[in-house]
Amino acid sequence: MKIRNIQLKSIEARRYVNLNERPKQVRIDHNSNIIHAYDIKDNQATIDFQYTASYGPVGMVKLEGSLILEDDNAGKIANDWKNTRKMPNQIAGQIHTAIMHACVPEAVGISKDLGLPPPIPLPQVKLGGSPKKGQFGPEVA
């Protein structure tokens, strides 16, 4: 199975509160949905998707796009999705992973422009103390 041609069609982002009203703790929820699936050929299907990063009462970033799924059973997968809105877990997992890999970096840039926290956990650097046995990490100066 191959996933090709991931392209964005729509970007919507909104900040609901002023910068100085931002709460200290913000929960960020990620969600990707398959909106529509239709077959192009027996071995290709187009998948329309939506990715949302929700910041609760603080804001949101929503991206919509499409991708091409290449698989020997792509036509059957698309038709099954139209009828049952389900697809095999392994294929769905790969599609949602590809959606996240394409959309999260875009959402990071958009969130920065709006003054929202990035929708990914940033690494935490802890200085001091001695490393535990068998624990190695990057050197920090």
Order of helices and strands: EEEEHH
Instruction: Report how far apart the termini are.
Output: 44 Å
What's the overall average pLDDT, rounded? 87
Q: List the uncertain runs.
A: none
Number of domains: 1
Q: Which structural category fits the helices and strands?
A: alpha+beta
CA-based shape: elongated
Q: Main beta sheet: strand number and arrangement? A: 4 strands, antiparallel
Q: How would you describe the overall organization of this protein?
A:
There is one protein chain. A four-stranded antiparallel beta sheet has the order 1-4-3-2. 26% of the residues lie in helices and 35% in strands. The protein has one domain (2-114). The protein has helices at residues 74-84, 89-114; strands at residues 2-15, 29-41, 44-54, 59-70.
